[in-house]
């Protein structure tokens, strides 16, 4: 089990180079930007998890439809209503839905990557300025 201890004020001042860094306006703007990006990252991760779950569900339904009879009408949900559709039409709509979710997931992953890149740049800049006197690990 790891033990951690808090630094005393003297140890913290020594670790930070012995001088207090004054927070300038641009530093505060970077800190605020980091906070907003971190919140956005959290929201994007949640949305991405939801889309991935939807994608898995669609793939599971698609596999189930492969076992259905070609002559059967299949219930297909559009909005809040279920419609009885021929198997081929349901599979076509399912394929379209899967492609749509795939493109949405790709866009979200790209956006999440951009947010993480900017967060990393802000971390580097803020740690370079403040050293151990700032904690950006979440």
From TrEMBL:
A GO molecular-function descriptor: unfolded protein binding
GO BP terms in the entry: protein folding
Role played: Binds specifically to cytosolic chaperonin (c-CPN) and transfers target proteins to it. Binds to nascent polypeptide chain and promotes folding in an environment in which there are many competing pathways for nonnative proteins.
Family the UniProt entry places it in: Belongs to the prefoldin subunit beta family.
Coiled coil ranges: 44-71
Signal peptide: none
Superkingdom, natural source: Eukaryota
Name listed for the protein in its UniProt record: Prefoldin subunit 4
InterPro entries linked to this entry: PFD_beta-like, PFDN4, Prefoldin
Residue span of region Disordered: 1-27
Oligomer and partners: Heterohexamer of two PFD-alpha type and four PFD-beta type subunits.
Keyword annotations: Chaperone, Coiled coil
A Pfam family the protein falls into: Prefoldin_2
Any Gene Ontology CC annotation: cytoplasm
């Amino acid at each position: 089990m790891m033990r951690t201890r808090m630094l005393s004020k003297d140890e913290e001042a020594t670790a930070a180079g012995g001088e207090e860094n004054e927070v300038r306006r641009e530093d505060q703007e970077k800190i605020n930007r980091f906070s907003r990006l971190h919140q956005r990252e959290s929201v994007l991760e949640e949305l991405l998890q939801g889309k991935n779950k939807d994608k898995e569900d669609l793939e599971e339904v698609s596999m189930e439809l492969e076992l259905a009879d070609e002559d059967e009408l299949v219930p297909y949900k559009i909005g809040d209503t279920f419609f009885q559709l021929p198997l081929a039409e349901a599979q076509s709509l399912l394929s379209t839905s899967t492609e749509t979710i795939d493109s949405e997931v790709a866009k979200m992953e790209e956006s999440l990557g951009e947010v993480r890149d900017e967060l990393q740049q802000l971390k580097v800049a803020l740690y370079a300025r403040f050293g151990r006197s700032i904690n950006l690990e979440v």
